[in-house]
C-alpha cells in the first residue's frame, strides 16, 4: 500500500489511498485511532472523474476489503 495508489474496495468501488499513519489520539473520526499499534489509512472514493468522500479506518480492514 502506498499513498496515491488506487484500489477496488468491496464496499466503495474505486478508492485512492490519501494517507497512512500509526494510530493517534487527536483523530477521532476513525475506529481504533487511540491505539498506537494500529495503522490507520485515509482513502477517498472516486465518483466519475471527481474525488468523492474521504474515509478512514484500520489498515487491516482496508486490505481485507481490497483483496
Mean pLDDT: 79
| Radius of gyration using CA atoms only | 12 Å
Order of helices and strands: EEEEH
Poorly predicted tracts of residues:
none
* Helix percent band: 10-25%
Measured between the Cα atoms of the first and last residue, the distance is 12 Å
Number of helices: 1
The largest sheet has its strands arranged as 1-2-3-4
Shape: globular
Structural class: mainly beta
Q: Which band does the percent of strand residues land in? A: over 45%
List the main descriptive attributes of the protein structure presented here.
67 residues, mainly beta, four-stranded antiparallel beta sheet, 4 strands, 12% helix, globular
Description:
The protein has one helix at residues 59-66; strands at 6-9, 13-22, 39-47, 50-58. 9% of the residues are buried. It starts with 5 loop residues before the first strand and ends with a helix. The chain is 12% helix and 48% strand. It has one domain. It is globular and about 35 Å long. Strands 1-2-3-4 form a 4-stranded antiparallel sheet, with helices on one face. It has 1 helix and 4 strands; from the N terminus they run ββββα. The chain is mostly beta strands.
Indicate the topology:
Elements: E1 6-9, E2 13-22, E3 39-47, E4 50-58, H1 59-66
Quick take:
With 67 residues, the chain is mainly beta. It has one helix at 59-66; strands spanning 6-9, 13-22, 39-47, 50-58. The protein contains one helix and four strands.
Amino acid at each position: 500500500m502506498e499513498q496515491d495508489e488506487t484500489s477496488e474496495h468491496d464496499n466503495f468501488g474505486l478508492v485512492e489511498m490519501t494517507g497512512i499513519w500509526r494510530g493517534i489520539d487527536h483523530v477521532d473520526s476513525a475506529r481504533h485511532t487511540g491505539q498506537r499499534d494500529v495503522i490507520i489509512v485515509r482513502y477517498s472514493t472516486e465518483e466519475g472523474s471527481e474525488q468523492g468522500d474521504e474515509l478512514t479506518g484500520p489498515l487491516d480492514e482496508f486490505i481485507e476489503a481490497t483483496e
